[in-house]
Amino acid sequence: MYRILSFNLLCAGTGSRTWRKRVPKVIKIIKEANPDSFGVQEAHWEWMKKLSRFLPEYDYVGVGRDDGKKKGEFSAVFYKKDKFTASDNGNFWISETPEKPSKGWDSACIRVATYVKLTDKGNGKSYIHFNTHLDHVGRTAQINGAKMIQEKAASFGGAPVVCTGDFNVFQDSDCYNTMVSGNMKDARKLAPDSDECYTFHGFRPNEIQERIDFVFVDEATVKPINFKVINKKVDGDFYSDHNAVYADVEI
Predict the structure, then answer these.
(1) Which residue of 7, 101, 108, 210 could cross-link 137, Cys pair, CB 3.0 to 4.6 Å?
(2) CATH number at residue 38
(3) pLDDT tens digit string along 121-176?
(4) Do strands 2-8 and 37-41 pair parallel, antiparallel, or not at all (unpaired)?
(5) Coil, strand, or helix at residue 213?
(6) How far apart are alpha carbons 43 and 175 in whole angstroms?
(7) What does the DSSP assignment read for 128-148?
(8) How many structural domains is the chain composed of?
(9) Full residue range of the structural domain in which residue 93 is found
């Protein structure tokens, strides 16, 4: 069984909740969850350096969305480097020119998706982990982003696929319905042991409770056992404006 986690870190923050002050909380959440692989959203280069420093058991694939290097937010995939061999990794931009940093359709921001094939060194099982952060404005860009992920996932010829991300949409949206229209399904709905908690709260859970962060899986090859939202505070305060989510799955 493998634990797949999705985590929007919040690139900035203000006052006592600046990103630098929240680093220990974020690290604690990840260490406690102990995922086999996890996707991050809103991780700028300084975030990436902190994650690499304090989580040395993980390596990652991914690039900054603005220049394909270090500039802008990463949608990186981290994985346990002693457990997995990483191969067939890459990035594509959610746009008409996916091979280079670019903003597509009605998107307000440049958006990127990252993927990597992870092969368990112990038993030889493998899965492809996709991760993305879809646009918060562009409806067409959201739908096309879902289509692009589906198409790329299909190119692996039926291999097990998981996809984490902040999709910035609700479960009744056109983008969501597009994402689950094929083999990819919502682990929250498939898992026999599931969690209906919200994922985005904006530090105001009494006012905002939105489910926009997901773990999608190929239902033919990946079986979710449970789905959980990490809805708690760390040392008396929120660790991000999103709750991290994870699914335990069998390949």
Answers:
(1) 108
(2) 3.60.10.10
(3) 999 999 999 999 999 999 999 999 999 999 999 999 999 999 999 999 999 999 99
(4) parallel
(5) strand
(6) 23
(7) EEEEEE--SS-HHHHHHHHHH
(8) 1
(9) 2-250
